[in-house]
Records
---
Amino acid sequence: MERGPVPSGPSRPGTLVVLEPGGGPTVGPQEGRVLWFGRNRPEVHICVGPDDPGVSRRHGSLEFVAGRWWVRTLGGRPVRVGGTHVLRRGDEPVPLADGRTSLLVEGADPRDLHLVRVRVVGPAEQPVRGVASGTVPVRCFRLDPTERLVLTVIAQRHLLRCPDPQPLTAREAAVELDVLQPEAGWTHKKVGHLVKKVRDRLSDDLPNVVPEPGATGFDSSYRRNLIEALVDSGTLGAEDLRLLGLDD
């Protein structure tokens, strides 16, 4: 295996930029090129969860094959690709789309998720360097404390990694919020208004969270898109479940 840093590649389509952990390599699209990620720093290109025994020494790889980058996991704990796809050892590799993708590596405690965030340069794009490093959460979108609480309630099935998770409805969320904050007077209309405010605010960055003018469709699909985007980006993470008293 090739060890140590990989030389930076040209900023052409297909270039892979490691945004998190900070200081990761930028590599060009070369057939058969492999980047390893895991906790054993000397033997991998991307060190993630170095003190977490749940992360394997060589947990997975990013490999350029047939014109695309593919994610494969070799470790015993799963990797979430793009916030929703759970990749386990033995599964077929998953291709990365152009743009940013978060890989969440599950630690010894399933609530500990370690972040690898990458960007694949698309046509006429330039790679963007990350400046911070660490473990989830990496806050890509700003939420105030009330928004974080409400959206964590709605996203709890995603954060708990339930099979085929669906966001809570506004009515379901209002019931749980009323238990958490009985003095706040939560109703489904109040929850819906807050979610709409967040969707509208993020619509420039996340155009699929609000319907286009004249579009028809169930509002639940746009709510689901919002939750998946917030989880995918690391804006909401497993540690936010502590807000719901689920940290024990």
---
Amino acid sequence: MVRLASGVALAAAVLAAVLLLPVWALRVVACAVAALAGREYLEIAGVHLRAVVLVVALCWVAAAPELPPAYLLLSMALLWVAVEVLFAGDAIQRATAGLFAAVYVGLPLGLLVAVHAAQGWPATLLLVAAIVVSDSSQYYTGRLLGRRPLAPAISPNKTVEGAVGGLAFGTAFMVLAGARALPSAGPAALAGLGVFVVTMGICGDLFESRLKRAAGVKDSSSLIPGHGGVLDRIDALLFAVVPFYLFVRNLP
């Protein structure tokens, strides 16, 4: 019951934010979520929590209506590593781990706001809903038909059959709902987008499972009752945002 209640409350909050908030406010919300999820990742990875500053900064920059110039992003990365190594006395490996946190968490959440700025709330909800449909389909298809483990060393409960179910239903949803949310995109393009987005979502889920297994933890935190941490809720979305953004930014 706790899991259901918190899940409904979380879904309602996301829906209200996407439908009601202006882009600048969504940008602030995305940075807040990036700070929470980034902190969880840094704690799992054993990296100094000051890297949350870089996570939030990259999220804010990436949320701009136009994709930031590559030289700006590269300059931010080099400056962070230089400060960490030369002035904070951190090891290069730890400094680059903090940089990865910004790319892994901050960049996708910023680009999600950029999707909203470019194509409006229908496109944003299309991506989020496609990931939810895929995740749910993986779970129920795996429960009903699952026989072969997908990645037993990483996530023993995930099955090949579940992944296929998630891919099929997630792609079908992208095609059907995308016809209204992205009317300028044809069915074939939406089908290809659906396959790519869902596949990346599955990879994102497995990636976070690998992080937690390596750290010996079950959840990224206990912030959301019955669901774990923020990172546990957005792991698939983080991997799926970038290809979706690259697709919609080229639409008329």
